[in-house]
């Protein structure tokens, strides 16, 4: 697994956009889970997912081969970027008045990066739309509305243990749709 990721990173750093897509795919469930934890004014769930994908792209570009595990590095980058977004430390480029304030060279996103992140967020939305009935309701309640699984089970008048199984099955379905 480590060898596969390292090889994908080499290809991605060399400009292979399909390698970037594969890396994003490997971390998409993690990004969705992290995005569901945050409630940030003026950001929808899809915006947060897209921000998570941009964090992965940035991690690919900043990662130094062989220094540490990319999985750990990428997970930390996604979490830290969500926290920074929440604190208001990350601003969209259109909001920056003076470009000389910060060095954008290493952190500048290309249009291609933005498009990739947007496409991945759209794939997540389409995958969610494919879920039916209680599976979709449970996933939306937990990951989009921010309820605990226990609260969602009570809302839908089902036992907690059944809610666990429904959530597990729904996440498996989402993984299949996202591949």
UniProtKB/TrEMBL annotation:
Keywords: DNA-binding, Sigma factor, Transcription, Transcription regulation. Pfam families: Sigma70_r2, Sigma70_r4. One of its GO terms (molecular function) is DNA binding. GO terms for biological process: DNA-templated transcription initiation. Residues 27-83, 127-176 form the RNA polymerase sigma-70 region domain. InterPro entries: RNA_pol_sigma-70_dom, RNA_pol_sigma70_r2, RNA_pol_sigma70_r4. This is Sigma-70 family RNA polymerase sigma factor. It comes from Clostridium thailandense.
């Amino acid at each position: 697994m480590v060898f596969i990721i390292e090889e994908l990173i080499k290809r991605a750093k060399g400009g292979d956009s399909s390698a970037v897509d594969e890396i994003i795919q490997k971390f998409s469930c993690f990004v969705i889970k992290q995005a569901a934890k945050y409630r940030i004014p003026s950001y929808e769930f899809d915006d947060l997912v897209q921000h998570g994908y941009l964090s992965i792209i940035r991690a690919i570009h900043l990662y130094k081969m062989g220094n540490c595990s990319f999985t750990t590095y990428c997970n930390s980058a996604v979490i830290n970027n969500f926290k920074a977004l929440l604190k208001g430390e990350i601003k969209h480029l259109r909001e920056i008045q003076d470009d000389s304030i910060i060095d954008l060279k290493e952190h500048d996103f290309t249009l291609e990066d933005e498009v990739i992140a947007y496409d991945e967020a759209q794939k997540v939305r389409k995958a969610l739309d494919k879920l039916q009935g209680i599976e979709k309701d449970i996933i939306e309640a937990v990951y989009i509305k921010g309820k605990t699984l226990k609260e969602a089970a009570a809302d839908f008048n089902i036992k907690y243990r059944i809610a666990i199984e429904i959530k597990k099955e729904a996440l498996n379905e989402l993984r299949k749709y996202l591949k």
